[in-house]
Amino acid sequence: MKRNKLIYVGGPTCSGKTKLSVLLAETFNTDIISCDSRQIYKEISIGTAKPSKNNLKKVKHHFINHVSIHEDYNVGIYNRETKKTLESIFKKKNTVILVGGTGLYANSIINGIDKFPKIGDSIKKKLNLILENEGIEKLNLMLKKYDPEYYKIVDKNNSRRIIRALEVSLSSGKPFISFLKKVRKNNLFESKVLLMNLERKELYKKINSRVDKMISLGLEKEAKSLFKYKHLNSLQTVGYREFFNYFEGKCSYKNAIEEIKKNTRRYAKRQITWNKKYKDFFLVNEDYKLDEIIKFIGN
User: Fold this and answer.
1) SS3 241
2) Helices 200-217 and 253-275: crossing angle, nearest 10°?
3) Mean pLDDT, rounded, for 15-38
4) For the chain, which domains are there?
5) Fewest CB atoms within 10 Å of the CB: 6, 23, 89, 276?
């Protein structure tokens, strides 16, 4: 019996993942599952570079505009929901495309995750008080102590991610990343990993250009409409928090845009670091040939 295949298209932001994933989905006549922890939210569109309406129409996408910013969502929920979706698709098709830049989400599907410990209210309360009274710097120092490996790749400005990792570490006595490290055999599919590979200078040029495009599409207006919800974990993300700082008078308009570009470049570097964990993959250069990728997938 032919084995089901999950084709993962990974890589840094702005590296061409969407374009390749749509091309592969059309080639294999199948669906796309997004593993982007920001595109999952309905209310944030411009700053998350969601696939165009045309691409969403061309190919069925799952986990885009999936939940509201007001809902709690994490890698554990994503893992459970995605497994159910995969089971359903694999009843009709034997290939599915997984695409997105959130390495944590992708890894949970490709390699599985340990069941996270139950988090006590006292730990949640304690960490939120530290954030409130001592700031995110204190939480970063704690994460560096309890989980130095995850500290290297986490967004140091994303309080939601940092608090989540600390909750798990403090509740279990084990680093958060250890829950993601065990590779599990699964009977549902075999995975094939494709990693986009852009020369760093070219990647940064594309990032700067994309941010300029987001500004022209109305990112400031979108961020302004969400400003009253700036405390939500779902909005602790690049493109929005920099504008929130501008609205609060903490920086100039020009500085906010420069910060978005700088923080997006930093995010891309962390994505590249995360993807170094994969041992067996196909490196997709800018001048890739589709038939070579299909040959790799067919191995």
Assistant:
1) helix
2) 140
3) 97
4) 5-115+182-199+272-298 (3.40.50.300), 121-177 (1.10.20.140), 201-268 (1.10.287.890)
5) 276
State in Å, rounded, how far the first CA of the chain is from the last one.
Answer: 15
The identity of residue 102, as a single letter, is: T
Asked if 251 and 245 touch (Cβ cutoff 8 Å), the reply is yes
Contact between 202 and 16 (Cβ < 8 Å): no
pLDDT for the residue numbered 112: 87
The pTM (predicted TM-score) of the whole model is 0.87
pLDDT tens-digit series, residues 161-211: 899 999 999 999 999 988 877 666 678 999 999 999 999 999 999 999 999
What residues are paired with 193 via a beta bridge?
Answer: 8
Integer Cα distance of 159 and 135 in angstroms: 9
Fill in the amino acid letter for 70: H
Write out the H or E segment, with its range, that includes residue 256: helix 253-275
Looking at residue 51, its amino acid is P
Contact 196, 9 (CB under 8 A): yes
Give the bridge partners for 282, in sequence order. Answer: 194
Q: What is the pLDDT of residues 262-294, one digit of tens each?
A: 999 999 999 999 999 899 999 999 999 999 999
- Dist CA 176 CA 143 (whole Å): 9
Tokens of 136: 């995110």
Q: What is the DSSP string of 147-196?
A: -HHHHHHS-TT-HHHHHHHHHHHHHHSS-GGGGT------SS-EEEEEEE
Predicted confidence at residue 182, as pLDDT, reads 67
Are 34 and 9 in contact, with CB atoms under 8 Å apart?
Answer: no
